[in-house]
Amino acid sequence: MAFEKTPVRAAVVGTGGIITGAHLPALRAHADRVRLVGAVDVDESRLADFLGEAGDGVSGYPGMTEMLAAEEPDLVLVGTPPSLHAEQARAALRAGAWVLCEKPLCLSLAEYDAIAAEEGTPAGGAGEAGVPPGTGEPAACGGPFASVVFQHRYGSGAAHARGLLRSGDLGAPLVAHCQTTWHRDAEYYSVPWRGRWATEGGGPTMGHGIHQMDLLLHLLGEWSEIRAMAGRLVHDVESEDVSTALVRFENGAMATVVNSVLSPDEVSRIRIDCADATVELTHLYGYGNDDWAYTPAPHARSRTERTSHWRTPAADVPSSHAAQLGGFLDAMEKGERPPGSGPDARRTLEFLAALYKSAFTAQPVQQGEITPQDPFYRAMHGEHPDWAPKEH
Ligand SMILES: NC(=O)c1ccc[n+]([C@@H]2O[C@H](COP(=O)([O-])OP(=O)(O)OC[C@H]3O[C@@H](n4cnc5c(N)ncnc54)[C@H](O)[C@@H]3O)[C@@H](O)[C@H]2O)c1
Questions:
Q1: Is the Cβ atom of 16 under 6 angstroms away from ligand 1?
Q2: Does the pLDDT at position 170 exceed 50?
Q3: 86 CB within 6 A, ligand 1
Q4: How far is 202 from 198, CA to CA, in rounded Å?
Q5: In what order do the strands lie in the sheet with 146-148?
Q6: What mean pLDDT, rounded, does the chain reach?
């Protein structure tokens, strides 16, 4: 396929903290396969700073429509505030570009399904075949697709742990803890779009703990039931500043989840106790292999060959945007649905919607019960009178 000789032409939308600090280095790490050609920001000085940082060959645009028309990019990386993601992802897909969008991809299941409706046909599916990016040639290939940034799935530590859990090497998963206990002060919430459903999409459940919860689901598979609580204990915000949940998984495992922006001693942690070992990840905003620990059960301790296999992934790839972009570009080359898209990423958003529904209604919520008729399908606050914005 000519694709290898013709780099993917990429554009970024939003040139703030995450695009400059994480997406630009990721693009540079894959410079042999992808070339940045366009950048969009409504803030002229941010755009100028970014263009200075990005180097030659990148054109700046004040709006996405102009950029899509002028550059016809193969790939659009979206790093704007959350309330803009859904419309920008849909516009890029309609223009034929693949999308890698910052979390949260959108603010509701309704928005998620509207984005999915703009995607192309999966490879092997019915309908017109897609065009492999960069080739200009029709082929038995799908796309474009929209994927969400969940960079913690793609480090070697997570890939290795998932393989061990899925193969049964650690024994049956039984008990899990998923903790995002961070600290954000009043100054953080003085920015007008923060803490509001319409602009941030939720509190630490949607904005901070989403990464750890996504990784928990990525490791443990399908969940079946959730019982949750949420509170507004400190900050003057519409959404929650803490949430907690009890979760049952289809494989029988039971988990606790805590999402907080009220915790002076900050940590991100996932711990899964299996029949033969405990696997535990402790970090803050990103991990390497050394942040994963494996503790064998007493009956497994003498089997040193097995336990040393647990502790040694083949490579040491930190969790990063670069790691995710590599897999995304692989999927583009093959015309396949990329990781972190479709039903796989929808599962995480449904889990968050269910957490909010259970917390606000004080009822357990089953996987699959939030259908388009449910108010929690359309908004994470579910129009609940104690939580939906008053002017809503
Ligand atoms: N994956 C992660 O670990 C991670 C970490 C931080 C932030 N994020 C996510 O990244 C996104 C952006 O966060 P940030 O911290 O970079 O914010 P930011 O405010 O630094 O950057 C956002 C940029 O978007 C620009 N913008 C606003 N409206 C626009 C429009 N209509 N068109 C084009 N540009 C527009 C702003 O001018 C700004 O430069 C959020 O969704 C956030 O949740 C993800």
A1: yes
A2: yes
A3: no
A4: 8
A5: 59-61, 34-40, 8-13, 75-78, 98-101, 146-148
A6: 93
